[in-house]
Design brief:
single chain; mainly alpha; Serine Threonine Protein Phosphatase 5, Tetratricopeptide repeat; 8 helices
Length: 139
C-alpha cells in the first residue's frame, strides 16, 4: 500500500515516505507529529499501515509515545493495548499521555488511564505519581 498516494503530504514532507528504506526514529516522530498537529484524517487501513511500516512496537520510546498520542487523538480503540503497554513500560514519558487520555472525554480512554495507573502506582516515582493523581483525581 502506497501511503503517499493515500494522503496528500506537503512537498517538504514527501521525502519521509520512502518505500525502499526503513524510517529512522526521528523521521517516524516527525511524521507522527505532523499527522497529529495537522489533524490529518486517517482510515483504519492507513493507521494499520503506519503502525506496521514504522515498526512501532520495535522502536524506541519516542516513536511509541508519538504513536500513542495519535491513537489517543483519533480515539482509535483498536490500538489501546499499545497505549497500555507504553504507560506500563515508560512511566516517566507516559505522564503526558495520562493527561491526553483524561481530556479526551472518552470513557474507555479515561478508564484505561485509571486502570493502568492503579496497576503501576506502587512502582512509580513519587513526583510522577503525584502528577498523574492530580490529572486522574482532581480535587
Amino acid at each position: 500500500m502506497d501511503f503517499h498516494a493515500m494522503i496528500e503530504f506537503p512537498p517538504e514532507h514527501t521525502q519521509m515516505i520512502s518505500q525502499d528504506e526503513d524510517f529512522q526514529p526521528d523521521q517516524s516522530v516527525l511524521l507522527l507529529d505532523y499527522l497529529i498537529e495537522d489533524n490529518v484524517q486517517l482510515t483504519m487501513s492507513q493507521m494499520k499501515w503506519l503502525r506496521d511500516r514504522l515498526k512501532v512496537l520495535d522502536t524506541g520510546a519516542e516513536v511509541q509515545h508519538s504513536w500513542c498520542e495519535l491513537v489517543i487523538q483519533r480515539r482509535d480503540l483498536r490500538w489501546l493495548k499499545d497505549v497500555e503497554t507504553f504507560l506500563k513500560q515508560h512511566q516517566a514519558m507516559g505522564v503526558y499521555l495520562y493527561g491526553e487520555l483524561m481530556i479526551s472525554e472518552n470513557r474507555r480512554l479515561q478508564a484505561l488511564a485509571r486502570s493502568v495507573f492503579n496497576t503501576v502506582r506502587p512502582s512509580m516515582a513519587e513526583a510522577q505519581r503525584l502528577a498523574v493523581e492530580e490529572m486522574l483525581f482532581p480535587t
